[in-house]
Amino acid sequence: MPLVDDDDFDLGAPTLLEMWKHQVVLVTNEAEYLTHELVKARQNIAKLVEMNEALSKDLQALQMRTLGKAQPMACGASGGLPLDRPVHLADSPRQPA
After folding, report:
1. Nearest-CA neighbor of 56 among 69, 68, 70?
2. CA dist 84 to 13, 20, 77, 80, 90, Å?
3. In tens digits, what is the pLDDT along the chain, a chain of 97 residues?
4. 34-40: Cβ within 8 A, 24+ apart
């Protein structure tokens, strides 16, 4: 009785070329899937940008009606700090430890 059960290899082991061809198929399928996902993500980002622009215009219109002037818009990455002064590291919101 052999120490290693090799019954699963009765049909033969794949050659190196067959393994490479299979790997090419796998990578190609993954690249196609990721390309499709990237297109969807870009479409979602474009929609979000459009929504943000529309909401910003609505906000400025409301500010003009209520305050008589529009407040300067702050970048979301700056943590909502005003745009009329430089941002310093000490001004940044602290991240929880």
Report:
1. 70
2. 70, 59, 16, 12, 17
3. 567 776 666 677 889 999 999 999 999 999 999 999 999 999 999 999 999 999 999 999 999 899 888 777 765 544 454 555 554 545 445 555 4
4. none
